[in-house]
Design goal:
Layout: H1 2-11, H2 21-30, E1 34-38, E2 44-48, E3 53-58, H3 64-76, H4 89-107, H5 112-118, H6 123-130, H7 134-149, H8 153-161
Parallel strand pairs: 1-3
Antiparallel strand pairs: 2-3
Helix pairs in contact: 1-4, 2-3, 3-4, 6-7
């Protein structure tokens, strides 16, 4: 999901942090996904059929940081195939993890996030800088650690920044 999130950031020249919600909505629109605000939904979900792709977002999701996370999490589901009702719980869990990773990488891009980490920014400051929850910051730190431990961080950074 790192590559997919980074490619979308580059494709739409998104370099402002926190990423404005309107930039996320514009990206969604340009990726041919409709956005529908619904009255009774508390969070969000993604729906796709042969005719359309739609993100449903609950109208009570007022906090901008939650809107960012939910919209990008649901956008990531466009990369998954099939009706989730027909998938096993293991595959659903994997898809949800990938969607969360996509949101984390989009909102806290590789290289940018790690630069702030190197400056010694704490979790609260990072959540403010990127306009996300502290929980998403912690998750993004785990993703960074996995890349570093797996030996692919420098390679991925090189690919996207050279």
């Amino acid at each position: 999901m790192l590559e997919k999130a980074t490619r979308l950031l580059w494709k739409y020249d998104i370099k402002e942090f926190p990423v404005p919600v309107d930039a996320i909505e514009e990206t969604i629109f340009k990726e041919d996904i409709k956005l529908s605000i619904t009255k009774y939904l508390k969070k969000s979900f993604y729906y796709e059929d042969s005719k359309s792709k739609i993100i449903y977002l609950g109208h009570k999701v007022k906090a901008t940081y939650k809107q960012r996370e939910y919209l990008l999490h649901e956008t990531a589901h466009m990369y998954h195939n099939g009706n989730t009702a027909l998938l096993t719980s293991v595959v659903i869990h994997k898809n949800e993890g990938q969607a969360q990773a996509f949101a984390a990488y989009f909102l806290m891009p590789i290289g940018v996030f790690e630069t702030y980490l190197a400056k010694g920014e704490n979790d609260y400051a990072l959540s403010e800088i990127f306009g996300v929850t502290q929980e998403l910051v912690l998750y993004r730190k785990e993703l960074s650690q996995s890349l570093i431990e797996g030996g692919s961080y420098e390679h991925m950074k090189y690919i996207f920044f050279n």
